[in-house]
Structure formats: structure tokens, C-alpha cells
């Protein structure tokens, strides 16, 4: 499998930075200005270094397969991370945004990274830079499942309480109908009202896309621009998934996992550190 990995790390972590500033204990003041993807957690120098270890267990050459899109203020920090982890500096690209107000949006950054690194001829794993999975996540098994079919892309899902529905992208999936544990995705809602869906299947930003599906990213953005899209329409990768799935542009399948670590604010970061035993 000719798989490339694109990590999205161009967000500004405004909630986390606000929480650190407001924390009277000053215990986490040393984290001011550090991108969420580079927060130290679980004995690693950065959150995304966990992913490097996981990829290596699948015999993926991270130096030739892992790429990062970041922003101007965070660029040098990601270069330092790349140096520490034997990732070529040329695998890090700056989207030139300078603050939360002029950020490009995750889907725009996704297309930017695809074009900059020339990844369109490869199957692609997209990873949100603020996301980790629980310790029992089996990436090798997921890759095996991805390789069993040629007609679709693969996402992960886990069950959440009803009162958290509006925080996440939510999948509707068919009953299990594959021997290898795959479900067919029939609908996707980005941060819906809890009363608008009976599904409790959250979908993190961790997408395995077939190379044939990658041109749809540009098609989605062109259509969004034509309709006068706002930043929020381009800043959630789930908006792209919803467009693909609702329009039946490409099949998506889902495999269940036991959960994720989602670093959005200081509370969730502290919980992540506790979970990994820091």
C-alpha cells in the first residue's frame, strides 16, 4: 500500500490558550504558544509523536510518509519537532496564516498540503493534530481492513453520550454486514442538535482516503466557494465528509474503536496526561 499521512496542525488552539492564561495556578504557563499537536503527553515530546510510534509499528517509513501543514507562528516549533524525530524539514509546510482571524480552515489546508507535497497519487491518511486514540487502538488491523476493499474510504467511530452529540461529527451506519467488522456509512452530521439524530457514533478526524477520492476535496471547496462559504464551512473536515456521503460521491465505511483523546482545552489536556500516566 502506497500510503501517505498528512497531519493537520494549523489551528490556533484558542480555547486551550485562553484556559492557560486564566489558570491561577500557573502550572501550565510554560505551554503558552505551543500548538496542541506539540503538547508533551504520555512520555513523548509531542502529542503527534505518539502517531509516529504507531506508524512505525506498521512498518511505515515516517521520514518519507508523514507530512504536516501548520501556520506561521507554529512553523519553527514544528521544524524543531521534525529535527528531534528524524522527519525531513521539507515535510513541514507553512500555510502563511498568522492568527485565528486569518486562518485558512482545515479543508483548505488539506488541499494545500495535497498540492504542496504532491500526494494525489497516493492513498492518504488524514490525522487531526489534536487527536489521539486509546491505548488499545490497533492501527495494523485498521490498515488490513482498509486494504480489503477498493471501492471506498475508511473512518473510525466510537459511542458517545447524547449530551455530547453537538460537539462532534456524527455518523449513521448500517448494521454489521462485513466479516472483517466494517459498517457502511449512510449519513454524516457535523455537530448536530442532539434531537436531530438517534445516532451516537462520533467520528474523529482520522480518515483513510483512497487516492481516487482525493480530487473530491477540491470539488467540495469549489462548490463551497460558489455558494459563498464562510470559514466554518471550510474549517471542519467533517463538512467535507458530510458533502461526500450525502452526495454519494464515494463510499465510506467505518470501523469501531473504543474511544479517543480529544485535546481541546486545558481540562481535556490534563485528562490526557492522567490517562497516559504522566
Automatic annotation (TrEMBL):
Alphabetized GO MF terms: transferase activity
Domain of life: Eukaryota
Keywords assigned by UniProt, alphabetized: Transferase
InterPro entries linked to this entry: NTP_transferase_dom (IPR005835), Nucleotide-diphossugar_trans (IPR029044)
The Nucleotidyl transferase domain, residue ranges: 6-274
Cited PANTHER family: GLUCOSE-1-PHOSPHATE THYMIDYLTRANSFERASE, THYMIDYLYLTRANSFERASE
Protein name, as recorded: Nucleotide-diphospho-sugar transferase
Amino acid at each position: 500500500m502506497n500510503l501517505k499521512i498528512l497531519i493537520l496542525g494549523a489551528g490556533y488552539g484558542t480555547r486551550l490558550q485562553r484556559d492557560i492564561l486564566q489558570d491561577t495556578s500557573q502550572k501550565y504557563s510554560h505551554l503558552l504558544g505551543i500548538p496542541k499537536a506539540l503538547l508533551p503527553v504520555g512520555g513523548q515530546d509531542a502529542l503527534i509523536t505518539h502517531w509516529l510510534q504507531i506508524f512505525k509499528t506498521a512498518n511505515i517509513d515516517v521520514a518519507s510518509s508523514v507530512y504536516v501543514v501548520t501556520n506561521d507562528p507554529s512553523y519553527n516549533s514544528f521544524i524543531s519537532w521534525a529535527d528531534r524525530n528524524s522527519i525531513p524539514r521539507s515535510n513541514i509546510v507553512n500555510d502563511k496564516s498568522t492568527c485565528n482571524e486569518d486562518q485558512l480552515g482545515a479543508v483548505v489546508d488539506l488541499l494545500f498540503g495535497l498540492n504542496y507535497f504532491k500526494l494525489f497519487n497516493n492513498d492518504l491518511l488524514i490525522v487531526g493534530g489534536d487527536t489521539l486514540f486509546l491505548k488499545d487502538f490497533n492501527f495494523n488491523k485498521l490498515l488490513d481492513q482498509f486494504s480489503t476493499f477498493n471501492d471506498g474510504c475508511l473512518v473510525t467511530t466510537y459511542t458517545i453520550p447524547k449530551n455530547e452529540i453537538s460537539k462532534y461529527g456524527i455518523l449513521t451506519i448500517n448494521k454489521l454486514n462485513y466479516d472483517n467488522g466494517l459498517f457502511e456509512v449512510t449519513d454524516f452530521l457535523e455537530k448536530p442538535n442532539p434531537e436531530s439524530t438517534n445516532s451516537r457514533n462520533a467520528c474523529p478526524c482520522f480518515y483513510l482516503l483512497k487516492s481516487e477520492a482525493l480530487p473530491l476535496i477540491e470539488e467540495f471547496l469549489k462548490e463551497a466557494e460558489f455558494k459563498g462559504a464562510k470559514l466554518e464551512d471550510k474549517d471542519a473536515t467533517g463538512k467535507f465528509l458530510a458533502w461526500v456521503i450525502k452526495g454519494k460521491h464515494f463510499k465510506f465505511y467505518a470501523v469501531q474503536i473504543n474511544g479517543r483523546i480529544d485535546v481541546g482545552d486545558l481540562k481535556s489536556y490534563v485528562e490526557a496526561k492522567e490517562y497516559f500516566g504522566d
